[in-house]
Design brief:
Elements: H1 16-19, H2 22-34, H3 38-45, H4 49-59, E1 68-72, H5 78-86, E2 92-97, H6 100-112, E3 119-123, E4 136-142, H7 151-161, E5 162-173, H8 179-200, H9 207-217, H10 221-230, E6 235-241, E7 246-252
Parallel strand pairs: 1-2, 1-4, 2-3, 4-5
Antiparallel strand pairs: 5-7, 6-7
Helix pairs in contact: 4-5, 8-9
Bound molecules: S-adenosylmethionine.
Length: about 250
């Protein structure tokens, strides 16, 4: 039973492994600044939809007793907690994130759900997963991989730590399918959202500009399938949610 935040020591890896590139540092500063308001912001900006997106993502994981799972970019631990419920509180779940402030909020929620003896919070970089090969039955990542510095490296690590036949479920923003809806969504993301950030929320973190830009720059549905295949996954499929605003990729090793 691990109830404290852990930052595992990795032989041969220096502190720079944890801090990473300038972009990664900027992203991490932003998550540190918004950690306390992250859940509220998430609910407001997604009109509450993120709860059903996360429930749907978890439904792609076989509910087998004793499942060992890793949730990468766990943040405030919503997915890890849903996964614990989905596994009938029989699994062993590691909720890993680079950001200590986000994890601290998450750890409080884990305790509130009486899940602390099954969910361990770890500070860890998705690009350097500190578990041996073939450690997990399943890996999940909710709105995480878009933020990592080196996506190829992170996907390689995810594939490496999965057991053969293990499943990676990736919930991430993607590309709306309908061109008309895409236009409206672009207006919301690139015009309304930054305006809300500046005028209403008086945001100083840049999150309202970062969010749409990071979504625009992230590989869309089909390209992510290709990257997952290149990372070593045998079968990959995806499911669009809310018209493709979000997609769930399910990749089997
Ligand atoms: C948008 S939040 C998502 C949090 C949570 N999974 C959810 O669905 O609400 C993205 C999280 O990914 C984490 N993250 C970004 N880059 C990371 C990396 N290289 N390794 C681990 N976590 C990372 C951030 O610190 C942040 O907590």
């Amino acid at each position: 039973m691990v109830q404290t935040l852990e930052k595992p020591e990795v032989p041969g890896k220096t502190a720079s492994t944890w801090t990473g590139s300038a972009r990664e540092q900027a992203v991490q500063r932003m998550f540190t600044a918004i950690a306390r308001f992250y859940d509220l912001n998430n609910s407001l900006l997604s009109f509450g939809l993120h709860h059903s997106w996360k429930r749907k993502a978890v439904s792609y994981i076989p509910a087998q007793l004793g499942t060992r799972a890793l949730d990468l970019g766990a943040g405030t631990c919503d997915l890890a907690i849903l996964l614990d419920e989905h596994l009938n509180r029989s699994g062993q779940i590691f909720a890993a994130d680079l950001n200590e402030a986000m994890l601290r909020v998450g750890q409080k929620k884990v305790r509130g759900h009486h899940s602390a003896n099954r969910i361990s919070c770890l500070q860890m970089n998705a690009e350097h997963v500190t578990f041996p090969d073939r450690s997990f039955d399943t890996v999940t990542a909710g709105f995480c991989v878009r933020n990592v510095g080196n996506l190829t490296k992170a996907l390689g690590e995810i594939c490496r730590v999965l057991k053969p036949g293990g499943r990676f479920v990736c919930l991430e923003f993607s590309r709306p399918v309908s061109p008309v809806f895409r236009k409206f969504y672009d207006w919301y993301s690139f015009r309304l959202l930054p305006w809300i950030g500046t005028v209403v929320a008086r945001d100083g973190t840049g999150v309202y500009e970062y969010l749409p830009a990071s979504i625009r720059n992230f590989p869309h549905q089909q390209r992510l399938c290709e990257l997952l295949t290149e990372a070593g996954f045998q079968s990959v499929e995806y499911h669009n949610l809310t018209g493709g605003i979000v997609a769930i990729h399910v990749a089997v090793k």
